[in-house]
Amino acid sequence: MTEIDPQAQIFTEFAELARTLGNPHRLALLEHVAQGERAVERLAALSGLSLANASQHLQQLRRAGFVEARRDGKRVLYRLGDGPIEELLGALRNYAEHNRAEIRALVAGAFSREGRVETISRQELIARLAEGAVTLLDVRTEDEFALGHLPGAVNIPAEELQRRLKELPDDQEIIAYCRGPYCLLSVDATAALIERGYRVRRLEEGFPDWKAAGLPVET
Question: Where in this chain does the record put each Rhodanese domain (predicted)?
Fold first, then answer.
């Protein structure tokens, strides 16, 4: 009888989890699920996938424990699974940016297309919020905002910003944020507001990172 090598078994499990994450569509789906519980139809639309394709990827993520599902009538709703999934995705992102020049170049190119947009760290934002010195602007969609947002944030979806500028103060700094560090919605919004004379910066991270850090959120 062949003796099972426990270490080999453990590494096999690690490899299976890594294989599940080794797909850009699944990583994109996880980013959207990280905003809050969503129906599979909505996740498919946000990710630009067919319903069948999105369902297939979500099933694989579910088998690996990255997402959980429940039925609500005829709808199937997905949420993140248990465990430090957001932290895992953040670590993957940080390592990729550190180790891959191609990724750094892609990120730099994407974020420089709107000119120089200044960012603010999570730590500085916490201090500024304690002083009551900033207005938080959430430029995600209304349904994402309803699932959870930073305390006191104002929700103006990016596509509505032009016609709702009067809702923003012109005497206080604005901090815009969206889905995550690669979400260009807040980059576009920040650049547009700067052109109109607002004092505005972009949060380096997004809502999932804020929530993963154990900071307070509102729904």
Answer: 130-219
